[in-house]
C-alpha cells in the first residue's frame, strides 16, 4: 500500500523541517512548500492526500490560499488542516471550509490524531 502523501506549506523553515521529519517517521510521504505562491501549482502536480497550511504567510496568506484551493476544480476536495497561532484561527478555518485546525505551538500527537481522523487510516 502506498504511503499517504501530506503537503506542508509554512513560511517558517524550522516548522517545515520538524514536521517533515516527524511525519516521515510516522510513515507519510511528505512534500514541503515554503513559498505560498507555488502552492496551488504544487497541489495540482502532487495531489496530496492532505494539506497542512499555515494561516499567516507573506505574499499569499493561508486564508487566501484556502479560497483559491476551494475554487480550483482539480484540488478543491483536498483536505486542509490549518496551523496557526491566531486566536481567530479556528473560526477562520471553519468559515473557509478547512477540515481542521491546530493551534501553534502544537503538540505532535494532536497533529497525528487530526491527520488520522481525516485520512481514516
Automatic annotation (TrEMBL):
Keyword list, A-Z: Phosphoprotein
Residue positions where 4-aspartylphosphate is found in the record: 54
Residue ranges constituting the Response regulatory domain according to the UniProt record: 5-119
PROSITE patterns: RESPONSE_REGULATORY
Keyword Phosphoprotein carried by entry: yes
One Pfam family cited in the UniProt record for this chain: Response_reg
InterPro entries to which the protein is assigned, alphabetical: Bact_response_regulator, CheY-like_superfamily, Sig_transdc_resp-reg_receiver
Claim: Phosphoprotein is one of the keywords in the record: yes
Domain of life (superkingdom): Bacteria
PANTHER family: RESPONSE REGULATORY DOMAIN-CONTAINING PROTEIN, STRESS RESPONSE REGULATOR PROTEIN 1
Record's protein name: Response regulatory domain-containing protein
Amino acid at each position: 500500500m502506498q504511503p499517504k502523501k501530506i503537503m506542508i506549506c509554512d513560511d517558517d523553515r524550522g516548522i517545515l523541517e520538524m514536521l517533515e521529519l516527524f511525519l516521515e517517521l510516522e510513515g507519510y510521504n511528505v512534500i514541503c512548500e515554503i513559498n505560498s505562491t507555488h502552492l496551488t501549482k504544487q497541489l495540482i502536480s502532487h495531489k496530496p492526500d492532505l494539506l497542512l497550511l499555515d494561516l499567516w504567510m507573506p505574499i499569499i496568506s493561508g486564508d487566501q490560499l484556502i479560497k483559491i484551493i476551494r475554487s480550483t476544480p482539480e484540488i478543491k476536495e483536498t483536505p486542509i488542516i490549518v496551523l496557526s497561532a491566531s486566536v481567530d484561527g479556528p473560526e477562520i478555518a471553519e468559515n473557509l471550509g478547512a477540515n481542521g485546525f491546530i493551534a501553534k505551538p502544537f503538540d505532535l500527537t494532536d497533529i497525528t490524531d487530526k491527520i488520522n481522523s481525516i485520512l481514516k487510516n
